[in-house]
Amino acid sequence: VQLQASGGGLVQTGGSLRLSCAVSGRTSDVHAIGWFRQGVGEDRDFIAFITLTGGSTYYADTVKGRFTISRDRAKNTVDLQMNELTPVDTAVYYCAARLGRTYLTSSRQYNFWGQGTQVTVSS
Asked: What is the pLDDT, as a whole number, of residue 36?
């Protein structure tokens, strides 16, 4: 399974960005796609996941109501719409694929990772 994240950039506080994760390879083995982020000197934190079968979604409290994860079957992408951004959201954002059905919020359980895309929110 290969993943490639894109869509990062520089945005002002209150602005929006849409990240996209292109998923290819043996996607039939993948149960969920997750988005994570990692600030400088910080741990890699869970943001959201979507299951590829039922389309179930789940969000971290820090982004609930501002971020939306969705799947575009035609494009084979999983997108992350980010609204009401603040400097706290500045980080490198990663998408990842999880083959198993448990621990979907744990970065350590994800099997494949994209290269990351930088999001910078200016004040």
From this structure: 98
